[in-house]
Amino acid sequence: MVALSAADWGLALAGGGLIGLAAAGLMLAFGRVAGVSGLVRNALAGRVEAIAFVLGLPLGALLVQALLASPPVTAFASPGRLVLAGLLVGIGAGLANGCTSGHAVCGIARLSPRSLVATVLFIAVGAGMVALAGVPAP
């Protein structure tokens, strides 16, 4: 078990609030659900708002890291394992007709039963894969 400080909790709450704000802003401004898999697809098709949203994900994390002067995050898996994991997540998002951000953040907020089931399955399969892979806690 990893002990979290009050600062960790505060950052997590602030991050969650910003994700909700971004999802609401995207819905209000463009009528789009903030599902990252769909946004990546739209960004590849050249939609400016999707490109801005997708670029904002890593850039926002880098900005917070720079502002807090925290040490760089190191990967816990090899590049090959990370690519395989990304492909499996992409396949799962395709099968579920959406990803965790679309279903968990936006779908549950709309009281969608389908999104609730998808989110529970995402979490259960993720926990199972971590247990199978034997990934240690940070």
Automatic annotation (TrEMBL):
Protein name per its UniProtKB record: Transporter component
Keywords linked to the UniProt accession: Cell inner membrane, Cell membrane, Membrane, Transmembrane, Transmembrane helix, Transport
PANTHER family (alphabetical): INNER MEMBRANE PROTEIN YEDE, SULPHUR TRANSPORT DOMAIN-CONTAINING PROTEIN
GO-annotated cellular components: plasma membrane
Localization per record: Cell inner membrane
Annotated TM spans: 6-30, 50-70, 82-109, 116-135
Family: Belongs to the TsuA/YedE (TC 9.B.102) family.
Originating organism: Paramagnetospirillum caucaseum
Membrane topology summary: Multi-pass membrane protein
Superkingdom, taxonomy of origin: Bacteria
